């Protein structure tokens, strides 16, 4: 959520993910129901630590609340204040953007620091467990922070009122808005045109893989501590959905990842440039405002410089088309298998950690020098082989110079290649956006219609913004190519003029 916070978590999430998925299963379909698990007695061991909750026939773990209800949010606010959160200039309210959000109750100056959430009120991998044994087992097994905090959240939720986090957990969304909550068929139907589809599938597989791994290595070995009725794929999905949409990395706390109650009620705006961080001087999580606010105005932070697709993936929303200056689309590029230098090119790419097929972000403002270097390599003829290494190195961003590569002799071909790729992608979007009536064929009841309407709208917003980037790139490329070609034509005309002149 906060700068270099969720952004860095999410972008680095999959590569760093310790249990990368070997499980190419169909998507898990959350039932969206409450989990009828029973967690009544919490007994105390001789060491004073509480045992795992006993499963009995009574009690229903609420797993958060509906986000349009403010009741639990107000109870959270009251508990935080009683637990040491200083007086705030913001209040939780129902808002137009993001359902619930923090709204100024007093004038707030630009540059003012807000929040001051003390470390005792944040959840990290070091937090104390209601069931100490569960925490000890996970740490003994060196479970990394993400799955550890996911399990912690489930464990604390199962303790209900006897967990110190019960007010916080009760105010969390029962169904976090992330693509983890889309079924495989929804992902396939609505994201058919977008490269986000593959990332959504990959992410869900990673979470399933992590759960399977935790389950076979740990949960199944300690069924008393991690009963299946509570620690299962469904609760894991909920918990990971919460982490994807709320966990922050705090650079000044050695990059620790944390859930920060209260701060995680702030919604995102691509137009603000302020992030959460730990402030060593005041010993609290704060953010400095980058503008002034009048009472009644919603206060936003930045969840990082993310594209609309990345925001949909983790947070389940898409900003209005044209409002996100960081918007980009994952642009797929591949070497041509018929290229006579195919093998040589693959070798240099591999040397620099790249492969014959790569994705680069294409932004509304253009493309990166890495992408351009990769394209140069793709279009290079054999007589440019002495530059292959330089190109692959620049494509991998490992070159020490900041200078973008420039090969005038390849420029036209490189631009034409990018243009061809744009033009081959655009029809997929157009087909999706212009296909009407497909909603009627899959909606069966009014509840599913409204869910389908919501998902379809998100997909339409995403595809419209991604196609807009492609249209813009197409326009720029066509203009550049026209300039190159008219320049060449002019040079040729002058050259022919000279030739005729000297022939006389
Ligand atoms: C960190 S929480 C913010 C608090 C949240 N609104 C709540 O009521 O719990 C992130 C979630 O807020 C919502 N959200 C944040 N910024 C938004 C925005 N600009 N537009 C729509 N929804 C937003 C999304 O549902 C996202 O998953």
UniProtKB/TrEMBL annotation:
InterPro entries for this protein: Rubisco_LSMT_subst-bd, Rubisco_LSMT_subst-bd_sf, SET_dom, SET_dom_sf, SET_RBCMT, SETD3_SETD6_MTase
Alphabetic keyword roster: Methyltransferase, S-adenosyl-L-methionine, Transferase
GO BP field: methylation
CDD domains xref list: SET_RBCMT
UniProt cross-references to SMART domains, sorted A to Z: SET
Highest rank taxon of the organism: Eukaryota
Any single Pfam family the record assigns to this protein: SET
Coiled-coil portions: none
Residue stretches making up the SET domain: 88-304
Gene Ontology molecular-function annotations: protein-lysine N-methyltransferase activity
Protein name, as recorded: SET domain-containing protein
């Amino acid at each position: 959520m906060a700068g270099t916070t969720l952004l860095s978590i999410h972008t680095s999430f999959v590569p760093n993910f310790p249990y990368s998925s070997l499980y190419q299963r169909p998507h898990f379909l959350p039932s969206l129901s409450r989990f009828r698990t029973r967690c009544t007695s919490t007994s105390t061991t001789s060491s004073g630590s509480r045992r795992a909750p006993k499963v009995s026939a009574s009690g229903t773990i609420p797993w958060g609340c509906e986000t349009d209800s403010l009741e639990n949010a107000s109870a959270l606010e009251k508990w935080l204040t009683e637990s040491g959160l200083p007086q705030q200039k913001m209040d939780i309210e129902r808002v137009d953007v993001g359902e619930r959000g923090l709204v100024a109750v007093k004038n707030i100056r630009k540059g003012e620091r807000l929040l001051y959430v003390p470390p005792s009120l944040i959840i990290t991998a070091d937090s104390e467990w209601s069931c100490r044994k569960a925490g000890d087992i996970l740490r003994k097994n060196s479970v990394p922070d993400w799955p550890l905090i996911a399990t912690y959240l489930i464990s604390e939720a199962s303790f209900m009122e006897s967990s110190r986090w019960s007010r916080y957990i009760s105010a969390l969304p029962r169904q976090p808005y992330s693509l983890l909550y889309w079924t495989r068929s929804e992902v396939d139907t609505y994201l058919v045109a977008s490269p986000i589809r593959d990332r959504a599938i990959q992410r869900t597989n990673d979470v399933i893989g992590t759960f399977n791994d935790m389950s076979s290595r740990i949960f199944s070995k300690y069924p008393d501590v991690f009963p299946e009725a509570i620690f299962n794929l469904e609760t894991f999905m909920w918990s990971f959905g919460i982490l994807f949409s709320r966990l922050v990395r705090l650079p000044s706390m050695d990059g620790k990842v944390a859930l920060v109650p209260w701060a995680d009620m702030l919604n995102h705006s691509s137009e603000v440039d302020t992030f959460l961080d730990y402030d060593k001087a005041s010993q609290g999580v704060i953010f400095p405002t980058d503008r002034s606010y009048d009472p009644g105005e919603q206060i936003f932070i930045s969840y990082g410089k993310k594209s609309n697709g990345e925001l949909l993936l983790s947070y389940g929303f898409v900003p209005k088309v044209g409002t996100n200056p960081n918007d980009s689309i994952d642009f797929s590029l591949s070497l041509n298998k018929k290229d006579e230098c195919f093998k040589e090119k693959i070798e240099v790419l591999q040397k620099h950690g790249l492969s014959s097929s790569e994705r680069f972000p294409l932004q509304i403002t253009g493309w990166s020098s890495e992408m351009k270097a990769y394209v140069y390599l793709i279009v290079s003829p054999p007589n440019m082989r002495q530059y292959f290494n330089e190109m692959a190195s620049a494509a991998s961003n490992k070159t020490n110079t900041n200078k973008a590569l420039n090969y005038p002799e390849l420029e036209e071909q490189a631009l034409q290649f990018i243009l061809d790729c744009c033009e081959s992608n655009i029809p997929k979007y157009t087909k999706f956006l212009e296909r009407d009536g497909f909603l009627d064929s899959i909606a069966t009841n009014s509840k599913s219609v409204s869910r389908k309407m919501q998902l379809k709208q998100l997909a339409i917003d995403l595809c419209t913004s991604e196609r807009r980037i492609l249209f813009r790139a197409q326009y720029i490329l066509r203009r550049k190519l026209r300039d190159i070609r008219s320049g060449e034509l002019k040079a040729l005309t002058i050259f022919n003029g000279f030739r005729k002149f000297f022939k006389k």
